[in-house]
Design goal:
Blueprint lengths: L6 E5 L4 H12 L3 E8 L5 H14 L8 E4 L2 H5 L28 H16 L3 E3 L15 H13 L8 E3 L7 H10 L22 H12 L16
Parallel strand pairs: 1-2, 1-4, 2-3, 4-5
Length: about 230
């Protein structure tokens, strides 16, 4: 009897977390269907470049990659990632939901990923959300993901069953760095900075979390940072 190929949609921003989740999906034997979103974020071009470099590294043909434009995020605004009149915080990570939170971004991403998964006959969606050591985003919580998975399966065809897989959700950043190394992630191809496209700023929340992860893992981050990066 011929075995059925497992397929997974992987939401791949080009950052360290989503790339590590993608490599875990590959190790678990899934055929990868990478999905990237351009939503008028400050580092849109750099993130898409990272996405394609990672896909090239994985030898995924261009015609099997999804790049979807979501310009309405900028129209909605309310986030420093998409509204150029709002400043990206660079003075350290504070408690609460930061101004870099994009309203319901992961919910919208997962909705589209669900549509792609149903069309492609995929049985899983991989997303690199992190609950414990994230920047306080409500759509990174495990409870949200579980409820969304239920809604997704209620809203698709009866024969469609999709699991949302979050292999990093309970990890700290240093553990994610170690997982990335374990799974052979080309970390030099990834991009995490919220505001720069050439050299990572080193002081936005995303850079600080990433740098802290490498520091605590006793490893050197291979991407370039500005010399005046702040304390992590």
């Amino acid at each position: 009897m011929e075995s059925v190929e497992k397929r997974a949609v992987t939401i791949l921003s080009g950052g360290m977390d989503s790339t590590t989740a993608t490599f875990i999906a590959k190790r678990e034997g899934y055929r990868l269907i990478p999905l990237h979103f351009n939503y008028r974020q400050r580092t849109e071009k750099r993130e898409e470049e990272a996405f394609h470099r990672i896909c090239d590294y994985l030898q995924i043909p261009r015609e099997e990659r999804y790049v979807i434009d979501l310009p309405f995020f900028q129209q909605i605004g309310a986030s420093a990632l998409v509204d150029p009149t709002l400043e990206v915080p660079t003075d350290g990570i504070k408690p609460g939901i930061p101004i870099t939170y994009v309203p319901f971004r992961n919910g919208i991403f997962l909705s589209i990923a669900g549509a792609v998964a149903e069309k492609e006959g995929a049985e899983a969606i991989f997303i690199g959300v992190v609950e414990e050591d994230s920047s306080g985003y409500p759509d990174c919580r495990e409870e949200f993901i579980l409820q969304f998975e239920r809604a997704l399966n209620l809203g698709t065809k009866p024969e469609t069953t999709i699991e949302i897989k979050t292999p990093l959700i309970h990890l700290k950043k240093e553990e994610i760095v170690k997982e990335a190394v374990k799974y052979g992630v080309p970390l030099h191809l990834t991009w995490s900075c919220y505001q720069n496209e050439k050299v990572a700023c080193g002081v936005c929340d995303s850079c600080r979390l990433r740098l802290k992860g490498f520091q605590r893992a006793n490893l050197i981050d291979p991407i370039p940072y500005q010399k005046n990066k702040g304390e992590v």
